[in-house]
Amino acid sequence: MNINQITRTLLGRTPSIMGHEQFIKFAVLLPLVEVNNEVHILFEVRSLTMRRQPGEVCFPGGRIEKGEDPQKAAVRETSEELGIQESEIIDVFPLDYMVSAFGTIIYPFAGRISDRSKIIPNEAEVGEVFTVPLSFFKKNQPDSYKINFQVEPEDGFPFDLIIGGENYNWQTRKMDEYFYRANGKVIWGLTAKVLTHFIELMENQSSKE
């Protein structure tokens, strides 16, 4: 391969996330509903029979199927979990997506459920649903804690091939973990991250008006 062939290969290429083919991709929806003419955010409590994270507070969402658009996945999962028609989920907009250190990409969206009275939670996945006024999160900041990640090379790692060997100065990273308390529930993890991001977007917009 000569330099011209390399140039033609790279010409017009759209960059993506390196190694994204190996990442597991999820989509979630932050649902907005109106309660007594006030904007609320709707949350699910995962069924206690779920294999992963039973009893935790979350937004509707799940794994993106092969060839499926992230927004379509978020709407589909919300429809399945809340027992509503996809047509009841309107004004869906993308939030910033996240690439985690655990080999996943999460695509969050915010959207409006036009008629919350039609919600019939899927009991196999959802233990209960509840709503919290958007104003509550604007007035109450989350508690924030750090999680430290440590590097642990596997047995047989070729330390002899790197300068510093077993004393190599690995870069470690920290991650903020947020906790909200509302309606007697604890909101944390991915749900709290998406929520915090959404509230920041709303606050930034309010400051411009």
TrEMBL record:
Domain Nudix hydrolase: 23-155
InterPro entries, per database record: CoAse, NUDIX_hydrolase-like_dom_sf, NUDIX_hydrolase_CS, NUDIX_hydrolase_dom
Coiled-coil spans in chain: none
E.C. number(s) listed in UniProt: 3.6.1.55
Entries under Gene3D superfamilies matching the protein: Nucleoside Triphosphate Pyrophosphohydrolase (3.90.79.10)
GO molecular function annotations of the record: 8-oxo-7,8-dihydrodeoxyguanosine triphosphate pyrophosphatase activity
Transit peptide as UniProt keyword: no
Entry superkingdom: Bacteria
Top enzyme class: hydrolase
Keyword field: Hydrolase, Magnesium, Manganese, Metal-binding
Keyword Magnesium: yes
CC cofactor: Mn(2+); Mg(2+)
Protein name as annotated: CoA pyrophosphatase
Organism: Mesobacillus jeotgali
